[in-house]
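does this look right to u?? phosphoenolpyruvate version
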Amino acid sequence: MQRQLDIIPVSEWGFFDESIPPLVIAGPCSAESELQVMMTAKGLHDFGIHVFRAGIWKPRTHPGSFEGVGVEGLRWLQKVKREYGMKVCTEVAGEKHVYECMKYGVDMVWIGARTTANPFMVQEIADALRDTDIPVLVKNPVNPDLDLWIGALERLNRAGIRKLGVVHRGFSTTQKIPYRNLPGWQMAVELRTLFPNLPFFADPSHMGGSRQYLKELSQRAMDLGLDGIMIESHCDPSCALSDAKQQIVPSDLKVLLESLTVRQKCTNDREYNENIEQLRTRIDVIDENLLISLGSRMEVSRKIGEFKKAHNIAIVQAQRWDEILSDMIEKGKHYGLSEHFITTFFNAIHDASVAEQNKILEG
Ligand code: PEP
Ligand code: MN
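got this back:
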């Protein structure tokens, strides 16, 4: 089914200075104190950031962790608006949050990853936002389910919300990866292709989970032609009450933003999809996923090696491998992959795996 969203372009929201891309939303993971909020906002405002984020109610994994300052923090956001003329935004996870935000003049809200995964809550938020005019950003659901993400956008749109955007923050995974969340960029590409005019942000902070990945993830977002980034910045990250490892001081954010290469945008959809840079980036993303899969495979293979050692079983079981390989050749045809390619590729994987298991046996 052809999905449709009736949206107002980000250029008409009056939030961002589009003359210097990317669009940036920055601010602390959480509002912690008036001083922290004001100092961070000042640092960001000083180099031209117009949109300030801060979590007021925080969805935490464990009870007893810092769960946000609540309504009091909304007064600090009001002060940021007053003193620096910035637009302010926060996360809402239910109708009560929406009503409080309206009361305190919050300019934009976002729906967090855990909430997007819950259609009941999204519907409740959409109903509470009916008849308001504020933009709503929808983060991807924690699980990589594109339909769930689109469904959330549709619920909001049906409630009359036309200033809609999305934030890609990656997905929960059991795979061993360097990042906090699996980037899963291919889903961003799919959504972008379906809705080329939907304002699209990446969140390198929650995706990477660590300062060290902010630059590469932000650059990747630019290479994929996304519109902007939502990034966490704190005046003193070492003291942050949540997500301390992934926040950077405003002056470091300035340096990071200046280091980004922003790709030329193509307005025409066809051109957009066939842009060589973006196709190359898609290949890079797929290669990275292959690496992750190969790493997971090797890990399982090592476990098998340990198991074989403990039970004194021979490493190479030729017949089993022959069966697997012919099965792969058959399946490979379905994907347009030749017998020669499949044989070479899987034999290389198998050889590396056997070598690793031999090491374990000898060790
Ligand atoms: C956040 O932006 O502070 C946040 C909690 O993000 P997410 O919903 O992506 O985990
Ligand atoms: Mn955070």
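The pocket of phosphoenolpyruvate (ligand 1) is lined by residues 29, 55, 59, 91, 112-113, 139, 169, 203, 206 (CB under 6 Å). idk if thats expected tbh
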